[in-house]
Fold each of these.
Amino acid sequence: MYKNIRAAVMGSINMDIILNMEKVPDVGENVLGTDYGYACGGKGANQATGLARLGAQTKMIGKVADDTNGKKLVENLNKNGINSSCVRTDGSQTGMATIIIDGEGKNRIIVYEGANAEIDPQEAADCIDESLDLLLVQFETSEDAVVECVNKAISQNITTVIDCGPAKNFNLERMQGATIISPNENETEALSGMFPADENSILEASKIIMERSRAKYVVLKLGSRGCSVWNGENLKIIPAYKSKVVDTTAAGDCFTAALALEYKKCGDIYAACDMGNKAGSVAVSRMGAESSMPTIEDLVKFEKNI
Ligand code: ATP
Ligand code: RIB
């Protein structure tokens, strides 16, 4: 379905430590965890995995260190069929995320950026050329690297999708005219000053983000409510699919990868959002970040069971 799409992701690559518990601790409190594990993650690498599992020809642009985690993470990219030739391995320390998950599958994440913050903007942008159809970025690397890559892609008419995680008031004015900008609820608040609680605040926040970024579409990820699309004229809310939530980690990454590919394939933003909702729904029903990304077969099976 997406095998002719040549995509690149410029973004973070992290080793995730995932700890499960019934209730997350309050200040000064000790709680017992139920289990823990290590997993390959990072918003950039998760999105690259999402693209590759859905069949796109995928290249990762990023940085790790020449340490144990860095080696494992690059190996894992290769195993997923992702071209890692634009991943530098000379960072100071590989990125790391500690993810704590409560009994309802809700997460809290602490990220140590390490090598992700050391990506050279020019070097990263040199990996982007007209042979690409699609570029995805997030905000888990340096602002300069994101801006340089997005502006290069826009100047080459490459479909450019900005995932706004993690939440920060990024200087959107430095990169004008991407194809899609897609924050989740907290990221929307960080960028617009408004939490997208109801239709009115969804519209107002979307308008502010469009004004700041001049993107063609503003797509808000709204968790169990699904997502919304603002095209400068109309607002549409596209409801989520019902899912048994196990762990929401990387649902947003998964949504963005599917959204981007379907949009690139058919040019219909509403169909793309629906595909994002399907992929997000599969992701929340599984444990882990990268490991929760569906394959194209998983999505076909999901569609048959709707
Ligand atoms: P995360 O930071 O946990 O990776 P996110 O906060 O960036 O995720 P969300 O808005 O929570 O992103 O989820 C992304 C998409 O996943 C939603 O737009 C929706 O399509 C799907 N999704 C999330 N939560 C649920 C849920 N409880 N039930 C069904 N679908 C969901
Ligand atoms: O979006 C989920 C990701 O956020 C995790 O894999 C973690 O590495 C953090 O970057």
Amino acid sequence: MPTAKFKRVMVKLSGEALMGDQEFGISPEVIGYVASEIRSIFDLNVEVALVIGGGNIFRGIKGSSYGMDRTSADHMGMLATVINSIALCDALEKQGMPTRVQSAIAMHEIAEPYILRRALRHLEKKRVVIFAAGTGNPYFTTDTAAVLRAQEIHAEILFKATKVDCLFDKDPECNSDAQPITSITHKQVLERELRAMDTTATSLAMDNKLPIGIINMLTPGNICKAVCGETIGTYIGD
Ligand code: UDP
């Protein structure tokens, strides 16, 4: 059995990662796969916190582009993350991981409210904690929520699980000469305007020295390798 390098980690999953080949929503196969990947690190006795986005259902910026008020659209986006969090909780529990959803927007009937001390207690008791509804504020993203919560719970690292292998020096979809980046500082990411995360999330991580690992979640075993300290994807830190 491999040995984990970290005791407590935050994993950020994009909502789109749950779509699979679909245009919208949640693929049952994909969410089952994601849960099995999380299981692989849970089994290493690592304390796991998760944040999942809502882009497979609704993004505030898209709503505001149709003329919706941005705050109302972001409220919808945050509710989308709650839908994904409940689905992920169900998938994790089906694979034997006790899981709690804590929401930044109060909705007592379906999720616990976000209470840091209670979240820490869950983690210590080896329950997976999913932080839903982002930061609870409009104009933010779930990347920022993941950085914020990672710091609050003193996670040692944030893994951003994506559909690409790593960060590139330019967009690989438009530039055939794009070069992969294995290691970079937060400051360089900001200066070079690389889209690892949004700038708010990256600068919050930089100011508080939170390392970020960019990994491809679609490659089975990647998250386990990363948690065991193997160099895969991109490491953002000093
Ligand atoms: N959102 C928000 N505040 C937050 C986090 C998220 O308003 O603190 C809203 C925002 O509208 C965003 C949506 O929730 O577009 C879904 O989150 P995100 O776009 O980060 O999801 P992902 O791209 O990771 O699927």
